[in-house]
Amino acid sequence: MATSGKIKLVTFVTGNPNKLRELNSILLTAGLSDRVVNKDIDLPELQGLPEMVAREKCRLAAERVGGPVLVEDTSLCFNALGGLPGVYIKWFLDALGPDGLPKLLAAFPDKSAEARCVFAYSRGPGQEVKVFAGVCPGSIADKPAGDNRFGWDPIFKPDGFHETFAQMVPEVKNTISHRAKALSLVRDFLVGELE
Ligand SMILES: O=P(O)(O)OP(=O)(O)OP(=O)(O)OC[C@H]1O[C@@H](n2cnc3c(O)ncnc32)[C@H](O)[C@@H]1O
Ligand SMILES: [Mg+2]
């Protein structure tokens, strides 16, 4: 376990292959993708504020991996619902599907929403946890549009675009997304952290 100096590799702990694909293509452009390896470990997720969820996931991941780890937690917040589903989006999506989520807003004129991504990094068990957050403002479409490959992408329209994330080519999503914004902070940090 590295406790001082520079580190060689970081393990990105996620069970979500779409997150991994996006991380790899975003970090590829920074020349860092070969320094991040993946481990699919099903970590228990404490629920609460997004930063706390990511911090706790990171603490557990560091214990399981025994070295430098990166994790992330993603929320989808509907402004008309005071920020819900937020960190609970995975369970809402599983229960309602992309078709059902817009129905939660049927009674509200305000369809605005925010996609939030919090990455958390630690050098190993018991080490400090650093967090890096990215937010993408947008709105919830009335019905899904685009390919159904990744979660709620078919219903989220980022501000300034007429398409949902699912209708965009990956290069566009990966430039403007919540994940891209958080990863640009992660990338700046990792440049100093990696040998
Ligand atoms: O193993 P982890 O990294 O926790 O992966 P996960 O799929 O459980 O992910 P989260 O706990 O962060 O839950 C977020 C939910 O939102 C979905 N999601 C995350 N990022 C997304 C994105 O950029 N576009 C669409 N859906 C996304 C994801 O599939 C989950 O259903
Ligand atoms: Mg999860």
From TrEMBL:
Pfam families: Ham1p_like. Binds 1 divalent metal cation per subunit; can use either Mg(2+) or Mn(2+). One of its GO terms (cellular component) is cytoplasm. Its cofactor is Mg(2+); Mn(2+). ITP binds at residues 14-19, 57, 73-74, 150-153, 173, 178-179. Belongs to the HAM1 NTPase family. This is Inosine triphosphate pyrophosphatase. It comes from Macrostomum lignano. The lineage of its organism: Eukaryota, Metazoa, Spiralia, Lophotrochozoa, Platyhelminthes.
